[in-house]
Amino acid sequence: MDSLIPPAVQSELIRSLLSFLKVSGMVILIVTPIITIMELLRVFNWLDPMLNPLHRLFSWMHIRKESVVALFVGIIFGIAYGGGMLLEEKKSGALNKRDALLIGVFLSLTHALVEDTLLFAAIGANLIVILFARILLTVVVLLVLRVFLPREAEGL
Fold it and tell me: In this structure, are residues 72 and 54 in contact, taking their beta carbons and an 8 Å threshold?
């Protein structure tokens, strides 16, 4: 009896499955150490000395120091990992709704800042103009948003 799926399609499905498993394995190999390192930093209280300068740098956002962890991860590792950390921090209670929204907006507006800017520069766009415009837009949007969000007493 002939197979319901043509051999060419079977071959492509197997190739796609193997590719998916390879990428999934790479993601696990990247994400697991990041989460482990962040947890070790938190358990041994090594995170605070790292977060103090970052908290000062982002003081204009009026977010709590504890909320800078998700922002830090998002800036360093991108929106996918930052978003994941944002969800974890929110679930654990380390992040309040206001901070989660501000950090989410920040990461949404600035994700792939380096990669996108370099791609546009590669096709002839002015690197400085694009970088400055995205950062300026992010700061303006967050300053406006911050005005309309109630300041929570905890940590502010």
Answer: yes
Residue appearing with tokens 């992040």 = 95
| Orientation angle between helical segments 79-92 and 68-77, nearest 10 degrees | 160
CA distance to 12, 43, 133, per residue, from 7 (Å): 9, 53, 51
Query: Model pTM?
Result: 0.66
| Count of all residues that appear for the chain in the document | 156
Q: Tell me what pLDDT residue 2 has.
A: 64
Residue 137 has pLDDT above 70, yes or no: yes
Q: Measure Cα distances from 143 to 102, 120, 148, 149 in Å.
A: 10, 27, 9, 10
Residue pointed to by tokens 């929106």: 79
| Closest listed residue to residue 54, CA positions, set 103, 89, 15, 94 | 103
